[in-house]
Amino acid sequence: MRVLVTGGHGFVGAWILKILHSRGDEAIVFDLHDNARRLEVLYPTGNTPQFAFHGGDVTKLDNILGAIDAHKIDHVIHLAGLQVPTCRQNPLLGSQVNVGGTLNVLEAVRLRRDSVKRVVYASSAAVFSPPDAYPKGSLPDNVPLNPGTHYGWFKICNEGNALVYQREHGIETVGLRPWTVYGVGRDVGMTSEPTRALKCLALGRPHQINYGGWQDMQFVEDVAAAFVACLGGVYKGPKSYNLRGAVVDMQQFLDAVAEVEPASRKLLSFQGGQLPIAWDLSDKGIQDDYGPIPVTPLVDGIRNTLESFRRLEGEGRLDKNDLG
Ligand SMILES: NC(=O)c1ccc[n+]([C@@H]2O[C@H](COP(=O)([O-])OP(=O)(O)OC[C@H]3O[C@@H](n4cnc5c(N)ncnc54)[C@H](O)[C@@H]3O)[C@@H](O)[C@H]2O)c1
């Protein structure tokens, strides 16, 4: 495959590039910036494979068309977007990038549908209403959605637009809804706090996570594998799929960290309430249609992340800019 990865220099993008490269696919990075720092820390020093980079802005249709044509793209993974805090501060910019940008990707694929076979795009669990809006039990992909953020509504809008492009133009679209993705490279966004806590722990620093309650902790390698899995296989329609990792409350997360690193009890804490997003989501849909999607146990994901942060610190390669 020749896969255009928009937002490829972001956190999830870096891990997707790594999987695509290991499979022998050609991955082309489409991003505003050419800074590959999140990718480089996934490889030993000096061993990062060369990925073609196409600088561009998803708010500009001709930038995306230019990338598809220049690199003879046959599949697209669309990740480029702004996260919850930015969309809250600047909803107009948020809609231009998250909604307008996604429409541009879909439109570019429509214009090049003879060559591009499928688009897999990042939606989010933020499309869901607060947890008390639903009955108890794991929620399937298809439930009423009434989120409390612009970001959540932008993602719903994208899911709707992807549906229309499939129905009216036959474009194969697949949406995925991650919850809290954690791992090396996570340094922005509302739910980056658990990863930041692990980075502080690796450095022996205290850290207080600024919210509590339940969440679904998803190891980034599993999320990346889900995106790649949805590029192939028999197409099952323009669905938006929940993902599922380890559903824990914040104390259970900290207990899992302490299982790996008992010293964390003295360094890590949390204060604050539940994020207003339903957290008990079933992944039956994606597992049935494109599975098996790997689910790394929480303790293993924590250990992997902590060890990587320690190794990077030892090599002088740990990025601490997100620690303030
Ligand atoms: N990380 C999570 O926990 C999580 C959870 C749910 C959904 N998501 C979604 O997954 C996607 C990837 O998340 P991430 O954590 O890798 O985000 P990230 O912020 O680390 O990366 C986003 C990338 O998009 C690029 N970008 C931003 N605006 C752009 C534009 N106009 N044109 C081109 N590139 C642009 C950025 O430069 C960055 O490299 C996003 O759409 C996000 O909303 C992430």
Walkthrough of the structure:
With 324 residues, the protein is α/β, with parallel strands linked by helices. It has a single domain (2-323), classed as Rossmann fold. Helix content is 41%, strand content 16%. It has twelve helices and twelve strands. It has helices at residues 11-23, 37-40, 61-70, 84-89, 91-111, 150-169, 193-202, 220-229, 250-260, 264-267, 284-290, 298-314; strands at residues 2-6, 26-31, 52-55, 75-78, 118-122, 172-177, 180-182, 207-209, 214-219, 240-242, 246-249, 268-270. It has a seven-stranded parallel sheet, sandwiched between helices. The protein has a three-stranded mixed sheet with strand order 7-9-11. Strand 5 (118-122), helix 6 and strand 6 (172-177) form a beta-alpha-beta unit. The relative contact order is 0.14. The model has no long low-confidence stretch (mean pLDDT 97). The structure holds nicotinamide-adenine-dinucleotide. The site of nicotinamide-adenine-dinucleotide has 27 residues, from helix 1, helix 5 and strand 7.
Report a brief summary of the structure.
The chain has helices at residues 11-23, 37-40, 61-70, 84-89, 91-111, 150-169, 193-202, 220-229, 250-260, 264-267, 284-290, 298-314; strands at residues 2-6, 26-31, 52-55, 75-78, 118-122, 172-177, 180-182, 207-209, 214-219, 240-242, 246-249, 268-270. The protein is an alpha/beta fold and 324 residues long.
Bound molecules: nicotinamide-adenine-dinucleotide
Q: What would CATH call the class?
A: Alpha Beta
The CATH architecture category equals 3-Layer(aba) Sandwich
Low-pLDDT runs: none
For the record, what is the CATH homologous superfamily label? NAD(P)-binding Rossmann-like Domain
